[in-house]
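Board notes (copied after class):
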Amino acid sequence: MKGMALRTIGTTVVERVTGGQPGRGRAMAAAVFAGAAAAGATYKLLRSGGGDDDEDDEDDDE
């Protein structure tokens, strides 16, 4: 699936850069794949952390 997504995005970008106009289906697929990748990266970024936040909160209560 990942290979297909990269190939779709790559083909669409190359086609657009060279002056062509990608078809609706290919453009929509590329947009969906790019959006999903951005959403996944954002989720990982927001959920990543030291993991010690719970312990720090307990020390603040004392």
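Comment from the instructor: Residues 14 and 20 are 9 Å apart (CA to CA). The chain has one domain: 2-47.
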